[in-house]
Amino acid sequence: MRGGNDRLSDRAVRAWLKNPDRAPNSRLSDGHGLFLRVTPKGTPLWLMKYRRGPKDTLISFGAYPEIGLKEARARRAAARELIRQGRDPVLERKVNRAEAIVATGNTFAECAAVWLEKRQPGWSPAHYSTVSETLARHVLPHLGPLPIAEVSQRLVAGVVERLGDRIDTAQKVRQICAGVFRLAQAQGKFVGDNPADAAREVIARRKLRGRRPAFVTWPELGGVLRGAEKANLSSAVRVAHRLCAFTAARMGNVIAAEWSEFQLEADPPMWVIPRAKMKAQDRHFDHRVVLGPVIAGEIRAWHLLNGSPTSGFVFPAVAGNRQHITHESIEKSYRVTLGLKDKHTPHGWRSALSTLARDHGFARDVVEMALDHVHDNDVVRAYDRGERLPERVRLAAWWNEQLAKAQRGEQ
């Protein structure tokens, strides 16, 4: 073994590794920071120590004998040249690896693009546009350039946490991320638990004071319907309110309803809401809302009034950059215009249908499926694909008829 730099020989390296008296943490130095050290698992590893800032840094050149002495020295020379140029060899390696991953399509952004492409055929143009914009605005700036295999639960949770109390957007972002990771898992690009699952826990919860207020008697419900007909509401808000009342659909689905989802001339008329828009995401089929005679007629008239479009939002926003009316526009009409604060909310129609339909004798399974509630037993889930459709048609017709009577004061 020679002094100075390039002090090792292949023979010296082999002899050192075979030496039974070699200390476990010892190293064999070649100079200029290059040395050979045996890992706890017994692998001889070429390392180079260099200083960037206040601390020493180590960079690995690979295992011996796969990387021989000559190759280790060549890699040391390349690293020293980068340092001479003011560049960090470790950072340079990370950048090169990231660029290689981009070239092979394994970044989060690349996987998200494939996920969108696969989902697009089953979505309306408007829904596809909404999901794409949400992804581009809230997710890709933070996760897009990263190798998807290196995106952790903490990184996904951080993206969701940035949205603060924007609960609906946070939930959509988490669902989008979960979908991208599921596809990456199926393609073998990601292994392990879905990082988006744990992010549920960082989404703020809506503060509710007990149960949301709801009228559950026909005279009270009829009063709400009559009051809304007399009130100074925009046409879109008025019809959205009617759709909410006569279907007991969730308000979030009502305001984001699209014409492509409605089968107004079918028998029975139907509103098919894509599963991606529903609260329950663990099912593999869309939610079918049966339209009773009253609301089916009103939606047909609204369709005709708007020029019989085949796509786009059913309740578009009048001004601004929003694509459809907001949840608050409906809530405020109930709370302020109709004076129903702490008495009845748009969600209250779901409570009313659940209570009054069960009291009238409709089976619990039928009511729960109509509301797309989370089912608590396998029997209910077995019927979920529509085998109870005749009962649901009767339920929708009955609910429409009773509300119409209540509005006329006949209940």
Structure, described:
- The protein has 411 residues and is an alpha+beta fold.
- It is 49% helix and 9% strand.
- The chain contains 16 helices and seven strands.
- It has helices at residues 10-18, 69-84, 89-104, 108-119, 125-143, 153-161, 167-186, 218-230, 235-247, 251-255, 293-305, 327-337, 348-360, 364-371, 378-382, 389-407; strands spanning 27-31, 34-38, 44-52, 55-63, 262-263, 270-273, 287-290.
- A hairpin with a 5-residue loop joins strand 2 (34-38) and strand 3.
- The longest helix has 20 residues, at 167-186.
- It is elongated, with a radius of gyration of 32 Å.
- The model is unreliable at 376-381 (pLDDT under 50).
Layout of SSEs?
Elements lengths: L9 H9 L8 E5 L2 E5 L5 E9 L2 E9 L5 H16 L4 H16 L3 H12 L5 H19 L9 H9 L5 H20 L31 H13 L4 H13 L3 H5 L6 E2 L6 E4 L13 E4 L2 H13 L21 H11 L10 H13 L3 H8 L6 H5 L6 H19 L4
Antiparallel strand pairs: 1-2, 2-3, 3-4, 5-6, 6-7
Helix pairs in contact: 4-5, 4-7, 5-6, 5-7, 6-7, 8-16, 9-11, 13-14, 14-16
Estimated structural class: alpha+beta
How many helix segments? 16
The unreliable regions are: 376-381
Order of helices and strands: HEEEEHHHHHHHHHEEEHHHHHH
State the distance separating the first and last CA atoms.
104 Å
- Per the principal axes of the C-alpha atoms, what is the gross shape? elongated
In terms of DSSP E residues, the strand content is 5-15%
What is the tally of beta strands? 7
Average pLDDT across residues?
Answer: 85
